[in-house]
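Review this:
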Amino acid sequence: MNPNPPVTDPEAHDVHLAQRTAVHPAGRKDRTMLIGLILLSVALAALAQLTLKHGMNQVAESTGELQLNAHSLKDVASTLAVWGGLLLFGLSAFVWLAVLSRASLSFAYPFASLTYALILLADRFVLHEEIPPLRWAGVFFIMLGIVLVAQTPHE
């Protein structure tokens, strides 16, 4: 039997969730686990992007920009970093499925934009690219939005 039956009254639902989180450590533990899974999925997706970029840089060094022809496709398909990036995306998607089984999409999906911040930081500190101030500001506001979303109930 479900210990948390569905609640049709939104106010009662909010009260129920607040009580569960405040009184029961399991509520906080569940939320911490959920946030951890979200962050893992986001980190894997960002790492996948960086790995794919590395692989495509390797392709570009050997054959130039990607063209829509059999030779380019062969170069991409034979680049280990591209396969590694795709594998990381697959792992990220698997973790994301676990997230979706635990939280509403409107709660979880905004966290996917954390990838922007991770990529921005990697571009600056790993790839040593210059980042314009307006781009930093945009990512700051994305992060602010994520903090606001994280303060809401996830059910």
